Amino acid sequence: MVQKTNTPTSADVARLAGVSRATVSYVLNNTHAVRISEPTRRRVHEAARELGYVPHAAARSLRAGHSRTVLMPAPAIPAGPLHSAFLSEVQGALGRLDYTVVQYGSVGLEGDEAARAWAELRPVAVLVPGAGCGPRGVAILKRSGARAVVTLGPERVEGAHALLMDHDAVGRCAATHLYERGRRRIGVVVPAEGALDTCSRPRLAGARQALHGTGATVSEVPLAYTERSAVRLAARWPGLDAVFAYNDEYAMLLMRALQDEGLRIPEDVAVIGADDLMLGRLLRPRLSTVRIELPSGRYLAALVDRLVRETGGEPEVHRVLGVSVVHRDST
Amino acid sequence: MVQKTNTPTSADVARLAGVSRATVSYVLNNTHAVRISEPTRRRVHEAARELGYVPHAAARSLRAGHSRTVLMPAPAIPAGPLHSAFLSEVQGALGRLDYTVVQYGSVGLEGDEAARAWAELRPVAVLVPGAGCGPRGVAILKRSGARAVVTLGPERVEGAHALLMDHDAVGRCAATHLYERGRRRIGVVVPAEGALDTCSRPRLAGARQALHGTGATVSEVPLAYTERSAVRLAARWPGLDAVFAYNDEYAMLLMRALQDEGLRIPEDVAVIGADDLMLGRLLRPRLSTVRIELPSGRYLAALVDRLVRETGGEPEVHRVLGVSVVHRDST
């Protein structure tokens, strides 16, 4: 069934360049263990270019026993601009360390099924966002040759390294700010969109924790990302004098509904979001927000590279979320 | 250097299930050409599960001469929510047709370099967004075994099938609406962010085309996605009585700056965006917008599947963008 009659092979490249197939392989796979002169390298590259030959990643990874592939399962929920920019940065930085970054969709796959599908690609490292992988999934990936499995999310997973995105800190930061602004009946929006639970639950817990024992109350405020849900919430506003609205987009939605209901921001209700999006600066009153800083792509790429090379160590935990309040006019 | 001592192999599975390695391969690769009884299939699956064996995608694709991998190079610019949802849908639909969808970052790669990197993964089909690939890139991909190269964007690329995202139609739609609302001095925002040129240039051209010969003027309005740029533009507003602001986010930015400058929307300047984001309904006045509809993931997946199977035909062109005006209060 192999029918790639037009496809140039490494044998064709070797013939044109006047070298052995092994030499072609060393040059095109960037193997520096073998000394090959610059002119020979150049000849091989020129022949490959002329023929339009590209090495076969699959064959290469079979030969090597492992790949240079780093797998980043694509998030199932549409990622925000912050997260997208972070992922691009990580990809670029891993690319510069000579890894191939492949994003893999997990749509329609659940639990261990996803890990098994990822394992089929025999990645040398896997970055798993959110709650994408349990302890059994981690074990499957390691058994199939992954040298480093790194989770990025609010919780640790047994057997994996963790970049802990400590969303508690976001909630603590927002609640403390509202308390310092004199507010005592504080709501925390928990989106009805369940996919956000892994972030929103720890944010609520962090707010509760920050104000524990102060006499201020912290209430859970359910809100779906629809105008209808916001209008209904505003119409029966439970007398809270401040709200941490999960993020800037939910804050915009809620602030509009509260204003339409005749409530004054911040006099009647102080509102704070998170993410520091441009839209927050365009709202009136200008939206206060929690700025969230992710680690640099370079930092994460260097960490992954080290974990791949130092395989066998204990799982490491790194806390990576920086938070700070940007105080504007809505609080 | 192969050192995966713990990794279970298909031979281990065969031993535990009491069948040949060929049978294991047929069952786990879903080959239906060979008749294998249900109990045997079940035994193989159970043995594989017990041992934690996962087939090796690379080995499988080498055996088959091609893979079931569809490559979707991840967009270099952060994708909007509309685009993200579309990509997820396509992934899901291709997965249900038994393809493996892999997103590949093109960060730091340019022109043919990107195509060469993609070709290394020996995809059976490649979906290329935007201007990610030229005619030479298409040829490289086809030579390395891709049976279908499909571009998604505003322009055709020689040798590739095209899902034409006809952004002219977005501009035509917006300009016609503004004209029908009685406006005659119409601006079209062209974002200073160059990555958006492939969409914004055709939108401007479409607006010009729609109003050609009507006596209305269409002017290019450069705007960067920063408050500073918007404030500066509004301060020296060139007397236009309407503006198509590229999309809803630029529209929000510009509308805020015009309002702060004392211009009334829509009395002095009518503003229309595009994308029909929720935020447009939250603005005051409520933002008019061009709703853009992408094809369903199922449609695109079925098309890719057909192109893979009917290899050898002429490049096909499908126009896939649906547009309609959502008229609210800003125009």
Automatic annotation (TrEMBL), chains A, B:
Q: Which InterPro entries match?
A: HTH_LacI (IPR000843), LacI/GalR-like_sensor (IPR046335), Lambda_DNA-bd_dom_sf (IPR010982), Peripla_BP_I (IPR028082)
- Alphabetically ordered keywords of this record: DNA-binding, Transcription, Transcription regulation
Q: Which Pfam families match?
A: LacI, Peripla_BP_3
GO molecular-function term, one example from the UniProt record: DNA-binding transcription factor activity
Q: Which CDD domains match?
A: HTH_LacI (cd01392), PBP1_LacI_sugar_binding-like (cd06267)
Q: Signal sequence: where?
A: none
Supply the SMART domains for this chain: HTH_LACI
The UniProt record lists the keyword Transcription regulation: yes
Keyword Electron transport set for record: no
- HTH lacI-type domain span: 8-64
Protein name, UniProt field? LacI family transcriptional regulator
Q: Give the originating organism.
A: Streptomyces misionensis
